[in-house]
């Protein structure tokens, strides 16, 4: 090719490029409709920097709407596109390439705010027509990614992974698994997984439910708790109620329907009142009452549960060891008020020293070190009053309480 032809080619190419990046091409035939509406007549009126900022505002509002969150700039981008379970996934996030694509788009848009938007908000900038249209092309390209239709998340298929025979019953595995669910679909996974609870293995899959509570939005936690409450309202079998406890979030007990709370709390308290534990054969009465250990501090009838616990410590080895086996570490969170704590301290000292309840003696030595000072002080007084029954054990206990 001669030098003349080369120069002619370059000239024609330059003309085409100049025609490409002109304001005449900025219309809804070539660009995103919402972007064109947001910029309005600014480009036509040669307000190029203002056009870039208007286009950026449209991009910002789009991210806020899709992520249902506030924020701006890089922080907003991270909220919407970042993390292992982004609020706006642009693909199914199953393969390494898909995860890289999601991460790459996040980084590009972060860079856009830092490189393009920020200088124009902090300093006076004079942009040309060609540069402005180039930025519009960039924003339009970013929007095409953000508006991409992603493959529908397979909720039922994912629940199969929770009920997989090889599901690993651990907090770490469950959190890794549930993090793969889009945040707005966790409640759907919860519904179907909860509906399949009759398949069993509740003691294992409870880790998945805990992870779902941890990762789902607060508004969805309320929906999940209400769903469990509807079933609890009618349940009568101790085993089935216990399994529902395993699928509940203790801190969310107060979110249950009032009638459900009152009914179940009454059942737990009544069960605790007959609690009976043999150190050789195990529990034979009061199994439902043991759930007061985990949930009791959130009960509306916490004081009634405390009374049931204290009364069990007044009876015999079997009732005293029931409390020792299931409640000894949670006593301070259930028994409130100086008067009740004093009564608790007296009954603990009676069970351990006067009645020589083996499990109470063993467990109390370990647990008492973590009791609050108010209970420690009252327990020291009660132990000293009964020291003559077993001076050696009493001194060990007093040392722990000091």
Description:
The chain is an all-alpha fold and 402 residues long. The protein folds into three domains: 3-146, no CATH class; 152-255; 257-402. Helices cover 64% and strands 2% of the residues. The chain is built from 21 helices and two strands. Strands 1-2 form a two-stranded antiparallel ribbon.
Short overview:
The protein has helices at residues 3-20, 33-39, 48-67, 73-81, 96-122, 129-146, 155-162, 171-178, 186-195, 202-215, 218-232, 238-246, 258-273, 292-295, 302-312, 317-326, 331-334, 338-354, 358-367, 373-385, 391-401, and strands spanning 276-278, 282-285.
Topology, please?
Layout: H1 3-20, H2 33-39, H3 48-67, H4 73-81, H5 96-122, H6 129-146, H7 155-162, H8 171-178, H9 186-195, H10 202-215, H11 218-232, H12 238-246, H13 258-273, E1 276-278, E2 282-285, H14 292-295, H15 302-312, H16 317-326, H17 331-334, H18 338-354, H19 358-367, H20 373-385, H21 391-401
Antiparallel strand pairs: 1-2
Helix pairs in contact: 2-3, 3-4, 3-5, 3-6, 4-5, 7-9, 8-10, 9-11, 13-15, 15-18, 16-19, 18-19, 18-20, 19-21, 20-21
What features would you highlight for this structure?
two-stranded antiparallel sheet, 402 residues, mainly alpha, 2 strands
Radius of gyration computed on alpha carbons: 33 Å
Order of helices and strands: HHHHHHHHHHHHHEEHHHHHHHH
Give the fraction of residues assigned to helices: 55-70%
Total helices: the number is 21
Mean pLDDT, rounded to whole units?
91
The profile of the biggest β sheet is: 2 strands, antiparallel
Shape assignment: elongated
How many domains make up the coordinates?
3
Structural class: mainly alpha
Strand order of the largest sheet: 1-2
Distance between the termini: 98 Å
Strand content: under 5%
**What's the number of extended β-strand segments?**
2
């Amino acid at each position: 090719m001669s030098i003349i032809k080369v120069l002619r080619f370059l000239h024609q190419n330059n003309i085409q490029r100049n025609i490409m990046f002109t304001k005449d091409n900025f219309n809804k035939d070539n660009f995103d409709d919402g972007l064109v509406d947001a910029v309005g007549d600014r480009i036509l009126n040669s307000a190029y920097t203002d056009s870039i900022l208007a286009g950026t505002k449209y991009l910002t509002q789009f991210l806020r709407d899709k992520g249902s969150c506030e924020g701006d700039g890089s922080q907003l981008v991270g909220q919407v596109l970042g993390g292992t379970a982004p609020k706006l996934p642009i693909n199914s996030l199953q393969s390494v390439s898909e995860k890289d694509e999601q991460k790459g788009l996040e980084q590009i848009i972060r860079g856009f705010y830092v490189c393009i938007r920020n200088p124009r908000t902090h300093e006076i900038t004079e942009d040309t027509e060609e540069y402005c249209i180039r930025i519009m092309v960039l924003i339009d390209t970013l929007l095409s990614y953000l508006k991409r239709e992603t493959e529908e998340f397979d909720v039922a298929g994912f629940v199969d992974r929770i009920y997989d025979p090889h599901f690993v019953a651990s907090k770490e595995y469950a959190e890794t698994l549930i993090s793969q669910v889009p945040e707005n679909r966790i409640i759907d996974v919860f519904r179907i997984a909860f509906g399949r609870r009759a398949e069993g293995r509740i003691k294992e899959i409870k880790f998945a439910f805990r992870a779902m509570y941890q990762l789902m939005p607060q508004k969805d936690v309320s929906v999940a708790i209400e769903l469990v409450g509807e079933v609890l309202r009618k349940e009568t079998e101790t085993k089935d109620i216990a399994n529902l406890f395993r699928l509940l979030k203790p801190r969310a007990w107060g979110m249950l329907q009032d009638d459900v709370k009152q009914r179940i709390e009454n059942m737990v308290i009544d069960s605790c009142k007959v609690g009976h534990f043999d150190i050789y054969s195990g529990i034979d009465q009061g199994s439902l009452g043991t759930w007061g250990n985990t949930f009791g501090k959130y009960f509306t009838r916490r004081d009634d549960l405390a009374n049931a616990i204290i009364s069990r410590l007044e009876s015999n080895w079997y009732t005293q060891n029931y409390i020792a086996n299931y409640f000894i570490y949670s006593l301070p969170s259930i028994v409130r008020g100086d008067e009740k704590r004093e009564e608790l301290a007296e009954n603990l000292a009676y069970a351990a020293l006067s009645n020589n309840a083996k499990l109470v003696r063993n467990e109390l030595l370990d647990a008492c070190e973590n009791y609050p000072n108010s209970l420690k002080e009252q327990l020291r007084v009660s132990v000293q009053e009964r020291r003559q029954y077993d001076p050696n054990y009493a001194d060990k206990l007093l040392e722990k309480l000091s």
